Amino acid sequence: MDYELKKIGKIKYIEEGQGEDIVLLHGLFGALSNFRDLIDHFKETHRVFIPMLPLYELTNLDTTVSGLAKFVEKFVSARGLKKFHILGNSLGGHVALVYALRYPQHINTITLTGSSGLFEHGMGETYPKRGDYDYIQKKTELTFYDPKMASKELVDEVFEITNNRLKALKIIQLARSAIKHNLGSELKNITAPTCLIWGKNDTITPPMVAEEFKKLLVNSELHWIDKCGHAPMMEVPAEFNTVLDGFLAKHNAAKSVDA
């Protein structure tokens, strides 16, 4: 299903469903397709938002994890959101954590999957091999446990980004910002319930990263998904959605108020 891309000024976003608000944040090579199964499932019970992170439009000064968190707050303010669940994959998880540290009053729960913020192997920290389709295909395949998940459409998207000099430079800048902006000493300040959903075969943010997040986030729970890489919500959506369903049901704001 195609979703309507809405706009508030220069801010582009998807909004689907009714219920408690949940904001989804994509990663460096993220696209709407990454969250398609998640939207289809959760729009039945939640109002789902996906702001399109301006990875290539920010000023050089703001092309950072902090700059993206600042953009998320602009979106939250523009859309009038008060309190919501936030979920991020890869760089999106990192942005969610920085946002939660700055604006804890808005956060019901946090869900992280393959999040950066502590340690990550990625494609963006060195200049990608522009014009080398086979290289990009192999790197894209490493995102998944099953390399067949790297469809031609997905590889073409990544190839287009890395083959555009300005976009490639922005990707490198953001990847370096993620590495530099290590959250290890700050995570103890996050008290919101946090769900870590991790692929056991993630080679970009390996299992030891999830274990470190679990140790440092005081109110967190860790769920492993076997035979799964860096993007569980794409590779094993049914299992991912089942875990997230259970977590969100435990932390339903309306139930908490009634209790």
What is the oligomer described by this structure? single chain
Biggest pleated-sheet summary: 8 strands, mixed
How much is the average pLDDT? 91
Count of domains: 1
Unreliable stretches: none
Shape: globular
Alpha plus pi helix count: 10
Count every beta strand, where a strand is a DSSP E run of 2 or more residues. Answer: 8
In whole angstroms, how far apart are the ends?
38 Å
| CATH fold call | Rossmann fold
Q: Which CATH architecture would you pick? A: 3-Layer(aba) Sandwich
Biggest β-sheet: strands ordered side by side in the sheet: 1-2-4-3-5-6-7-8
Query: SSE string, helix = H, strand = E?
Result: EEEHEHEHEHHHEHEHHH
What class do helices, strands and sheet pairing give? alpha/beta
The CATH superfamily title: Alpha/Beta hydrolase fold, catalytic domain
Which percent band covers the strand fraction? 15-25%
Classify the helix fraction into a percent range: 40-55%
Structure overview:
The protein has 259 residues and is α/β, with parallel strands linked by helices. The chain has one domain (5-123, 184-258): 3-Layer(aba) Sandwich (Rossmann fold), CATH 3.40.50.1820. 40% of the residues lie in helices and 18% in strands. It is built from ten helices and eight strands. It has helices spanning 36-42, 65-79, 91-102, 133-141, 152-162, 165-180, 207-216, 232-235, 237-250, 253-258; strands spanning 5-8, 11-16, 20-25, 46-51, 84-89, 107-113, 194-199, 220-225. An eight-stranded mixed beta sheet has the order 1-2-4-3-5-6-7-8, sandwiched between helices. A hairpin with a 2-residue loop joins strand 1 (5-8) and strand 2 (11-16). Helix 1 packs across helix 9 and helix 4 (133-141) crosses helix 5 (152-162). The chain is globular, with a radius of gyration of 17 Å. The protein starts with a strand and ends with a helix. The mean pLDDT is 91.
